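Support request from a user on the community tier.

User writes: "When I paste my structure tokens into the form, the page sometimes reloads and wipes my input. The last time it worked, I copied everything first. Here is what I submitted, just in case something in the input itself triggers the reload:"
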């Protein structure tokens, strides 16, 4: 839950954002494995219980932005009036990319080696990608009258999420000169969407 707006100033940052920033500092200073939840909470100036109000585990603190995108994707899909299921998925992924705060680069990806995240990074991404994959496949299946596990919904979901992830990865690695995320995701999706939509 976000904290109230201060009079005459900008909204205060949510406790989740403050915890994520505290975790990033500690992971950079002493590595992921040597950092505890108690240390993160102390650095953020909140209690251990407050940490668990926002995150279920230490690893979840790395994925604040990606978790928001996972939560929003079904709503973006449901809002589409595009008759082509493939084009509707493209619209939803572009909407999610457009909504991403350009100041919030996922440090878990950008600084994984320095922070010593390793296998936790792979596992965290995998869980979230599978959640997105299931949402997209279910949407395509509903539009086409197929089962979510059928080849076409699985192909559309895998290909389009793979392209979007590729664009996202290049955006992260481009550093301070990076352009808006939606440009990378759009460029990655364009040929994939065209090929699938011609099916």
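"...and here is what came back when it finally went through:"
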């Amino acid at each position: 839950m976000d904290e109230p707006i201060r009079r005459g100033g900008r909204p205060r940052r949510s406790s989740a954002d403050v915890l994520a920033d505290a975790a990033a500092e500690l992971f950079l200073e002493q590595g992921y494995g040597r950092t505890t939840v108690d240390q993160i909470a102390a650095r953020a100036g909140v209690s251990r219980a407050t940490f668990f109000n926002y995150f279920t585990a230490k690893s979840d603190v790395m994925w604040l932005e990606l978790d928001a995108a996972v939560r929003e994707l079904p709503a973006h899909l449901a809002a589409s009036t595009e008759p082509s299921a493939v084009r509707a998925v493209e619209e939803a992924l572009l909407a999610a990319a457009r909504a991403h705060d350009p100041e919030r680069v996922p440090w878990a990806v950008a600084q994984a080696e320095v922070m010593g995240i390793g296998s936790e990074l792979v596992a965290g991404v995998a869980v979230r990608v599978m959640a997105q994959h299931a949402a997209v496949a279910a949407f395509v299946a509903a539009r086409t009258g197929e089962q979510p596990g059928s080849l076409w919904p699985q192909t559309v979901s895998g290909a389009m999420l793979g392209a979007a992830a590729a664009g996202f990865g290049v955006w992260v690695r481009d550093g301070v000169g990076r352009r808006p995320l939606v440009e990378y995701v759009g460029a990655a999706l364009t040929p994939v969407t065209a090929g699938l939509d011609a099916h």
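Agent notes: The reload is a front-end session timeout and is unrelated to the input. The chain has two domains: 15-55, 61-197. The chain has ten helices and no strands. Escalated to web team.
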